[in-house]
Design a protein that fits this description.
By secondary structure, this protein is of the alpha/beta class. The protein contains eleven helices and eight strands. The chain has an eight-stranded mixed β-sheet with strand order 3-2-1-4-5-6-7-8, sandwiched between helices. The chain is globular and about 55 Å long.
Length: about 280
């Protein structure tokens, strides 16, 4: 395989894809973002411009660095335009079938020595690798939101993932100024396998009428020193994302602590997704 990636492709211009693209461009890499929907493409660029603008106004980067980062960013509407990428990071919706479809298509477009990574937070990597001709180049690269701020990336090794793939990915993550942690390929990896039971316990506590949302959150903020309470964190992550992670974890382990509580299902049916929809466990402007 080739050395450290220089040109990076990102599949998906949503919240996570935009954050990954911004972070990679600010680190000096050329980035192509595949986003075929015009509205999503415009929203992604505006989101990145706002984020980089805040970094400049706070003094974290200079005006020249802001312009250079935006100059390294390009949007494309066809997957074959990612064919010159050394690394492609898939960051689409947390749906196994949709991700499999993208990996099948990418397999026909990207070079054989290019790495293929998924930003999935819970879906096993082995399944994604199974539809790629050279599965040893497939891995998980799980960033955390908001990507430009959060310093952690889980580097996930599936059974067929090659050692060189992990080495290249780990060095790439370090070059972004982030800390990589290594994990094997189990649903939820490290962080979500520990985090989800905690968050779902808070939802069940509220669902049972045991305590108010405010007191549950205050208890963990003031009693445990957490920066935000579990229900606020649920809203921040997105209840649709959490539901998908719960489903994946429960499917793999069949443990009740991973099952999504009925309250979350009812909230999703009502359109209450958290901060991004204006309503979750709390209300937002």
């Amino acid at each position: 395989m080739a050395g450290s990636p220089q040109a990076v492709g990102v599949v998906g211009g949503g919240l996570m894809g935009s954050g990954i693209a911004e972070t990679v461009a600010r680190a000096g890499y050329r980035v192509k973002v595949y986003e075929p929907i015009v509205e999503s493409r415009d929203a992604s660029r505006a989101r990145i411009e706002r984020s980089i603008g805040r970094a400049e106004s706070s003094g974290r980067i200079s005006a020249d660095e802001r312009e250079a980062a935006m100059g390294r960013l390009r949007y494309v509407t066809h997957l074959d335009e990612l064919s010159d990428s050394d690394l492609v990071i898939e960051a689409v919706v947390e749906d196994r079938d949709i991700k499999l479809g993208y990996f099948r298509r990418l397999n026909g477009y990207v070079r054989e020595d290019a790495l293929l990574a998924s930003n999935t937070s819970s879906i096993p990597i082995a399944g994604l690798a199974s539809v790629v001709d050279r599965p040893e180049r497939v891995l998980g690269m799980h960033f955390f939101s908001p990507v430009p701020v959060m310093g952690l990336v889980e580097v996930v090794s599936a059974l067929p993932t090659g050692e060189e793939t992990i080495e290249r990915a780990t060095e790439f993550v370090k070059s972004l100024g982030k800390t990589p942690i290594s994990t094997k390929d189990r649903s939820g990896f490290i962080v979500n396998m520990l985090l989800i039971p905690y968050l779902m316990a808070a939802v069940r506590m509220l669902e049972d009428g045991f305590a108010t949302r405010e007191d549950i959150d205050a208890g963990m903020r003031l009693g445990c020193g957490h920066p935000m309470g579990p229900l606020t964190l649920c809203d921040f992550i997105g209840l649709d994302v959490l539901y998908a992670i719960c489903d994946s974890l429960y499917e793999e382990f069949k443990r009740p602590e991973y099952a999504p509580p009925p309250l979350i299902k009812r909230m999703l049916a009502t359109g209450w997704l958290g901060r991004k929809s204006g309503r979750g466990f709390y209300e937002y402007d």
